[in-house]
Design brief:
Length: about 375
């Protein structure tokens, strides 16, 4: 797997000038497709579907057998898809990979928009459904292929809720450090939530205090102590200042998870083994999660469904796929093991076996016609 990938901005389309169909992406070897969504109070809204450009996958020369599976990946807060090596992993096991930049994130953000702003997490159902229609996993699932959803952080929360209220649509769910519980857990959420909801009702677009000091970015970005290249405008070092309306939507999602989701497909939850509070920089932040309380999330993950696999990976960052190379190898191994166990390739139909032994004596033969 390649260790470095490059992001980069594109000129955002104005209303009526969005590109049609698949066009070259800012990420080398990929292409994107703009999904025009229903406008909201801020104006036109789009999401962006990303895929590998045909003939450019690293596995093309190896001819990896098609597993008959598609993966749709959804990023987290203050993020967008730039992890080309994640696509390479899924392609190495015969899976077609797609990624979705949600509305008001990354490729989908437009100048007139508040970054990341929604008031309900179910708002994202529109772009998820639009993406699945293009991939071939609409309501009728006409493609006959299986679907695995993969979400990181807030994207993991969004896809968990989606899978819960759309039973039967997916065949598996992979969650990369999903934000299933608030950092101060249930007690802290119960203390903070009433005030946040009041603020969301009175001033939904106001900004909350930003506690992000850029320490996670320091552990990830090649501009600091990390190894990854990405667009710092689409993924700011200190993050965006969250709005109370968005935070209230997340709290409601956490509350729904706490009541149990009953997801009907196998779930893999990938988490770092340890959490370091993002108070001041330390080298431990290069091998721990500095964003979510991994112990609280691991406990909450058990409520997702009845087939949940939890893998705690020593040395992993918040985005476990951005960890150091030896740690990534563990992440790939755990994911591949889960995938082969729970989403195995469908066997090709084989011809009926030739009868053998005494059964040959009773095999029906065509009747002979004697000429008169």
């Amino acid at each position: 797997m390649s260790a470095r990938t490059t992001g980069g901005r594109q000129d955002p389309g104005d209303e009526g000038t969005e590109p049609v169909g698949w066009v070259p992406d800012v990420l080398p070897g990929f292409e994107r497709r703009t999904l025009v969504l229903e406008p909201d109070f801020e104006g036109p809204v789009v999401a962006t579907l990303v895929r590998r450009a045909p003939g450019t996958a690293a596995t093309d020369a190896v001819r990896v057998p098609d597993a008959g599976v598609d993966v749709l990946y959804v990023h987290g807060w203050n993020d967008y898809f730039f992890q080309a090596h994640l696509a390479e992993f899924w392609e190495s096991v015969g899976v077609r990979f797609f990624a979705l930049d949600l509305r008001k994130y990354g490729r989908s953000i437009r100048p007139h928009q508040t970054p990341g702003f929604v008031t309900r997490l179910r708002t994202y159902d529109e772009e998820i459904s639009a993406a699945l229609d293009i991939i071939g996993h609409g309501e009728e699932k006409a493609s006959g292929r299986r679907l695995v959803l993969m979400g990181h952080s807030t994207g993991g929360l969004v896809l968990s809720l989606w899978a819960a209220h759309r039973p039967g649509r997916a065949d598996g769910l992979v969650l990369n450090s999903p934000w299933l519980e608030f950092q101060t857990r249930l007690l802290g959420r119960r203390v903070l939530e009433p005030g946040v909801r009041v603020q969301a009702a009175l001033a939904p677009l106001s900004h909350m205090i930003n506690l992000d000091q850029g320490l996670y970015a320091r552990s990830v970005s090649s501009r600091f102590d990390g190894e990854w290249e990405y667009d710092a405008v689409w993924r700011p070092d200190r993050g965006w200042r969250a709005t109370p309306a968005w935070m209230s939507a997340v709290f409601r999602g956490h509350d729904r998870v706490a009541r149990g989701l009953g997801i009907d497909v196998p779930v893999l939850v990938l988490l770092s083994a340890r959490f370091t509070p993002p108070v001041r920089w330390s080298v431990e932040m290069l091998r721990t999660d500095t964003v979510i309380d991994v112990v609280g999330v691991a406990r909450r993950a058990a409520d997702l469904g009845n087939r949940v696999t939890i893998a705690r990976v020593e040395g992993a960052l918040h985005d476990v796929t951005l960890s150091a190379a030896p740690v990534r190898d563990v992440v790939w191994a755990e994911t591949a093991r889960w995938f082969h166990a729970y989403v195995p390739p469908r066997p090709e139909p084989s011809p009926a076996p030739e009868p053998h032994g005494w059964r040959r004596l009773f095999r029906r033969r065509p009747a002979r016609v004697r000429a008169s």
